[in-house]
Amino acid sequence: MSHNHSEKHNSTPAHLTLHPHTPQEAKELHLVWKTAIVSVIVIATNVFSSYCLTRGLRTIGVIESWSPLPYIYAFRNPWVSLGVIFMIAWLVSRLALLSWADLSYVLPVTAFSYVLTAIVGAVYFDERVNRLHWIGISLITLGVGLVAITPPETLEENGRP
């Protein structure tokens, strides 16, 4: 049985092909790549902000005050300031991602930052991550993988404004 080009074309979802054949497939491929790149930025800025904030706050010490002054003082630490910059980058990239991709896609996929943050805590801060935590981290990773293999929906495709 021979397979012609159109049969192959029709059997492969647009988000899984690297060579779009129609303008719609090109648009879908662009969306997939744009979403993947910005998702990586969201994840990376989240992890870097957590690392920087933790490193800075561990040099400052515990802040237990209702007064804003100790928190304002914390911004003088370069690691805390860098962490805040990464948090701003995280917020901007997350806003951008949520502007075109569904919340039900974005949250599970960007939850991979929790996995990486736990690894950073264990490796760079000698935090103890017990077996139950690793099982939970593995389940998060599995969930991220399952959601990531689906195409991100867009506001236009769902018929919303």
Question: What does the model show?
Answer:
The protein has 7 helices and no strands. By secondary structure, it is an all-alpha fold. It has one domain. Helix 2 runs antiparallel to helix 4 and helix 2 runs parallel beside helix 6. It is globular and about 60 Å long. The N terminus is likely disordered.
Helix/strand/pairing category: mainly alpha
Point out poorly predicted stretches. 1-12
Described by the principal axes of the CA atoms, the overall outline is: globular
Number of helices: 7
Proportion of residues in β-strands: under 5%
- Please tell me the overall pLDDT: 84
**Strand runs, count:** 0
- Helix and strand sequence: HHHHHHH
| Total of domains | 1
Distance between the termini: 45 Å
| Rg calc | 21 Å
Determine the fraction of residues in helical runs and give it as a percent range: over 70%
Helix and strand arrangement:
Layout: H1 5-11, H2 23-60, H3 69-74, H4 78-100, H5 103-110, H6 112-124, H7 131-148
Helix pairs in contact: 2-4, 2-6, 5-7, 6-7
Brief rundown of the structure:
The chain is mainly α and 161 residues long.
Characteristic key phrases:
single chain, 161 residues, mainly alpha, 7 helices, 70% helix, globular, disordered N terminus
